[in-house]
Design a protein that fits this description.
There is one protein chain. The longest helix has 16 residues, at about 75-90. A two-stranded antiparallel sheet has the order 1-2. The protein has one domain. The protein is globular, with a radius of gyration of 14 Å. It starts with a helix and ends in a 5-residue tail after the last helix. By secondary structure, the protein is mostly helical. The chain has helices at about 1-10, 15-20, 20-35, 40-45, 75-90; strands spanning about 50-55, 70-75.
Length: about 100
């Protein structure tokens, strides 16, 4: 079910080209090679392999796409939790 949702969402994602670009794939591979463990889990004393490269400051909010200082390795559960909290925050930012 989650896989199907992801496929459907990506079909409408304007950033799809970016995440499929050779430059992003190379950057992602380098980040995971240099930091193979989830940084959030490590902060809790856990060793969990990272599967996702996350923008610390989301691109939508002005984060740099390829700046290594704005990228972190996360496991899928930590990435999902971070994304959910960012989404909730953005929803609560009602225009005045």
């Amino acid at each position: 079910m989650h896989r199907e949702y992801g496929r459907a969402r990506r079909g409408f994602d304007t950033e799809l080209g970016f995440y499929q670009s050779a430059r992003w794939r190379n950057t992602r591979a380098a980040v995971l090679r240099d930091n193979p463990l989830c940084c959030r889990c490590q902060a809790k004393g856990l060793l969990q392999p990272a599967k996702v490269v996350d923008h610390i400051v989301p691109v939508k909010l002005g984060g740099e796409r390829f700046e290594r200082a704005n990228l972190q390795s996360l496991c899928v559960p930590c990435h999902n939790a971070k994304t959910a909290s960012e989404t909730a925050f953005l929803r609560n930012q009602a225009p005045f």
